[in-house]
Amino acid sequence: MKMLAADHPNSAPATVLLSNLLADEPGAIRIGPFGSALKKHEYSDAGIRVLGIDDVLSKGSPRKPKFIPEAKYDELTQYRVRPGDILVTNMGTVGRAFLVPPNFETAIISSHLIKVTPDVSRVDANYLERALNDSPAVTAQIANDSRGAIMAGFNTTRLKQLRIPLPSLPEQRRIADILDQADALRAKRRAASDHLSSLAHSIFLDMFGSPATNPKGWPRQRLGELATKFSDGPFGSNLKTSHYADEGIRVIRLQNIGAGMFLDTDKAFISEQHFASLKKHECLPGDLLVGTMGVPNLRACIQPDWLPIALNKADCVQVRPDATVCNGDYLCALLNEPETESMAHQLILGQTRLRISMGRLRELKVPVPPTTIQTAFSERLRVLQSLGQEAERSGAHFDDLFASLQHRAFRGEL
Q1: What is the C-alpha to C-alpha distance for residues 64 and 47, in angstroms, rounded to an integer?
Q2: At 250, is the secondary structure helix, strand, or coil?
Q3: What are the helix (H) ranges across 149-229?
Q4: What is the tens place of the pLDDT at every residue in 97-139?
Q5: How many Å apart are CA 298 and CA 288, to the nearest integer?
Q6: Confidence of residue 372 (pLDDT cuts 50, 70, 90)
């Protein structure tokens, strides 16, 4: 018997409009309730789940599930989802898909989702979810066709017009199974990386205890007493957006300060000539960079060695540890402890944007253990960081392999 082109392992499958892959039933594709159909004040603390963007991105396990009373659900049963339905985001992160698993609790969709009920005689639901999320050709269509004045948007008409690569059902299941296995390996890698991060927190608590309760009775000192330099960045006309250049001296901004990690994104620079007038704000490798506004309100990282010189912006406090009393690793970990932010809560002020002023932060009293114990903490941290860097390199390699797998899978090359 002659093999169909779509079934041949080295030929690209034909594409089919998603509209031709819908179940033959009313509401096979439907957007969630808009406007007065479901208002914010009608949500409740328990009852029937209302699924939104967070549910799709978290695969059904959001941090804060939403509910409506059963009486309200009775008015909205046409928006109910069933196992095997595919939910697609139509705002924000547009086009992300989630296959509702077996035995999922009773739920409806919000206006930020589109429900798709596939015709399982033509398309495997797991494969269709994978095609929407992983097929480069499909995701490119979604990106090109997402429109919206403020946020990227999507609707049922555009969703139905997507062209989906469609090999035979057995081949669809094989592709979905391969990608599922690869994703499971990626999830294990991410879990290992997360475990390394939590280990640093556990080691800190084991060696020093909670900064708030200070169970080991370490003497407390003001943060300002632990530094040879404690400096905020230039304010007002000294450093404006108009001063930024394409290259020169790096400007450290709030978005570059992560909790324990320097975020090398959203780069900004000023010319060396302008920096010469702001020399007192010079930041060097090993300096602590403390974010005093944003989320969380108190967070810190260490300026990396590969950034030999920089300038901190306003609300980014530079702390140069006094090595005779503390080291940067201890101080950075201390400032990133949730208990430390709680201790600083009374220092956080602001009408619209909450911040901790440099002067108030300088006065925050924190436990100061002996430098020998701080050094032991640094040594343990270095081991974890080495493992983390290796995991990051391995993860980047794995992500590259997965991207290659995605391309090959939907071109019929697996």
Answers
A1: 14
A2: strand
A3: 156-160, 169-208
A4: 999 999 999 999 999 999 999 999 999 999 999 999 989 889 9
A5: 12
A6: very high
By the 10 Å C-beta count (0-12 exposed, 13-18 middle, 19+ buried), 230 is classed as buried
Residues 6+ apart with CB under 8 A from 379: none
Listed residue (358, 356, 362, 332) closest to 232, CA to CA: 358
Radius of gyration of the chain (CA): 27
Per DSSP, helices labelled H in 209-277 are 272-276
Please, which residues have CB within 8 angstroms of residue 345's CB and are 6 or more apart in sequence? none
| Buried residues in 195-226 as b, exposed as e (16+ CB within 10 A) | eeeebbeebbeebbbbbeebeeebeeeebebb
- Please report, as a single letter, which amino acid is at residue 45: D
Dihedral of alpha carbons 329, 331, 334, 336, sign: negative
SS3 category, 375? helix
Closest alpha carbon to 284 in 319, 332, 245, 232 = 319
pTM score, whole prediction: 0.57
79 or 260, which is more confident: 79
Q: Which residue has the tokens 């963007």?
A: 53
Among the listed residues 293, 289, 290, 322, the one whose alpha carbon sits nearest the alpha carbon of residue 303: 289
3-state helix, strand, coil in the chain (%, to 5): 40, 20, 40
Query: What pairing do the DSSP bridges indicate for beta strands 48-51 and 107-109?
Result: parallel
Residue pair 292/300 in contact by the 8 Å Cβ criterion: no
